[in-house]
Amino acid sequence: MIAEKSFYTVLNSSDYYEIGLDTDLQALVLRYKRSGTSEEYRSLHVELLEAMERVHVNRMLVHTQHMGAVAPEDQRWLGQSMIPMLAMAALGNYLHVAVIVPDDNIFTQLAVENVEQLCNENRNCTNRNFSNIAAARQWLGEQQLPL
């Protein structure tokens, strides 16, 4: 299923998430549509890895407005297992992640901050959080492959 969004093409979608490609930024886009179960969360990230292997970019934009709380064990799994695999599948084996975090959901903020810390501990990933999409897209557009 491919559908156009305002700035990206949808590659895969469900009632839980949407994965797309922003061709201007050369970035994968992940948008959560609602809170999900641990199984949904992990399955989504496996699909995200498959998308990264297909499009082979080194940037990712994540919208967490509707993500909700994420269990600590799922945060660790994402930061310690899945993000390194995403980075290895990314162009140049390096991943830049811009995460849009809502100001009004402390549970989402805590989950995102924990994953950001785990991601930034890896030598093949840089993760930054933003309160708006314009700043996130600008930062992503400035990111290049490390030398």
What does this entry look like structurally?
This protein is an alpha/beta fold and 147 residues long. The protein has a single domain, classed as Transcription Regulator spoIIAA (2-Layer Sandwich). Helices cover 42% and strands 24% of the residues. A seven-stranded mixed beta sheet has the order 1-2-3-4-5-6-7, with helices on both faces. A hairpin with a 4-residue loop joins strand 1 (3-4) and strand 2 (9-13). The protein is globular, with a radius of gyration of 14 Å. This is STAS/SEC14 domain-containing protein. It comes from Pontibacter actiniarum.
Short description:
By secondary structure, the chain is α/β, with parallel strands linked by helices.
CATH topology group: Transcription Regulator spoIIAA
Number of domains: 1
Q: Which band does the percent of strand residues land in?
A: 15-25%
So what's the overall shape?
globular
Order of helices and strands: EEEEHEHEHEH
Helix content: 40-55%
CA distance, first residue to last residue: 36 Å
Protein name: STAS/SEC14 domain-containing protein
